[in-house]
Input
Amino acid sequence: LFCKKEKSLYATLNLFEGDMNLRANCWYPESEEQQIRALLISLSTSQTGSNSAVLISHRTQPKKSPPTYIRKNEFTEVFQ
Output
């Protein structure tokens, strides 16, 4: 089942041509937003070609509640 999903996902992504954009929604900790932006910028500038990634944050109230996020430390690392 996993392989079928992966294959269909890549088949769909291969249909993109030219200057098309791909949008993905994700959750991330607000405290790590600047680190994520810096990482995306550094990866976009280090790659050759026209690939780039941008983080656009929407500060609207989400339809679903965000997932529980517990930062790892030496105690919780064993359980994750």
Summary: Residues 42 and 48 are 12 Å apart (CA to CA). The chain is about 30% helix and 0% strand. Helices lie at 2-13, 33-46.
